[in-house]
Amino acid sequence: MPAKKGSGTLPGSYAVRVAPKQYLLQNKNLMWIQFSLGTDLHTVFQSYGNMPLVSISDEPDTLYRRLSVLVKGHDKAVLDSYEYFAVLAAEELGLSIEKVYEPPRKIERMTLLKSVHVYKKHRVQYEMRTYYRCLELKHLTGSTANVYLEYIQRNLPEGVAMEVKKTKIEKLPEHIQKPIWGTLPQVEETVNES
User: What does the record list as GO biological process (predicted)?
Assistant: First the structure.
């Protein structure tokens, strides 16, 4: 079928009209996707071509001993809600949570004159309170950590900053693995007989 352009169709030549307000999308990666536009969302059908669903590589995955996620913001209620979301997401992914805690808040106060040039006794005081939440996860693989971090970063609320620290597990270098006492010359002990 040729692609129709006009009102009610999707932009570009990807959409093919099948029935009133129903379309089939053709993509190079997917074979066909069918959906309908209207008051209720219809069926979504995806048929993958020859694409592998899981990529397999011989490279070993990175291992992390600890993943520390520090979230900071000025609204305590937003941080409480986001902490609940992040812990729930970690539990659903089957990650082991080491601890969740609230570091002490930081209060920054600023005292200014009410008027710019006069009335030194009349002042106003502003303060900014920064609240923190810290979530520590332990024993993660690199792919699991990337998926979890991408998910919680995409759902990060406005006005909230995130800081992530990863503690990677690495193999000891070979020059450290060999014990140094194996390379030292042996000292002969003499026995005194009396």
Answer: translation
Query: What span, in angstroms and rounded, lies between the C-alpha atoms of 62 and 171?
Result: 11
pTM of the model: 0.60
Q: State which amino acid sits at residue 45.
A: F
**Domain encompassing residue 35:** 15-48
User: Which pLDDT tens digit goes with each residue over 114-155?
Assistant: 988 888 889 999 999 999 999 999 999 999 999 999 999 999
Q: Say yes or no: 40 and 86 in one domain.
A: no
Phi-psi region of 119 (alpha: psi -120 to 50; beta: other; left: phi over 0): left
Q: Is residue 182 part of a domain?
A: no
Residue 143 φ/ψ, nearest 5 degrees = -70, -40
**pLDDT tens-digit series, residues 142-153:** 999 999 999 999
Q: What is the CA radius of gyration of the chain?
A: 31
Euclidean distance between the first and the last CA atom of the chain, given in angstroms as a whole number: 110
Q: Other C-beta atoms within 10 Å of 166: how many? A: 15
3-state secondary structure of 42: coil
